[in-house]
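Title: Prediction job returns without error message
Component: structure pipeline
Severity: low
Priority: P3
Assignee: unassigned

Description:
Job completed but the reporter wants confirmation the result is attached to the right record. Sequence as submitted:
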Amino acid sequence: MESVSLAHHQQDLRVTVQALGWWPNGRFQPLADDIASVAYWYQRRPHAGFAEFPRLEQQWPR
């Protein structure tokens, strides 16, 4: 099930997600769930230009 909520902010927004479950005795159980998230924002113009992306070999050093 998807959860959608709006968070109005002026500058910065930080969200921390942690997967917790429960042991039968009522204590926390850390989980190893695979959690994914996406965030979109709407920005009024004008805005500063975007920096150039690094070349692919610089993004994924091996």
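Comment from assignee: result matches the submitted record. The helical segments are 56-59.
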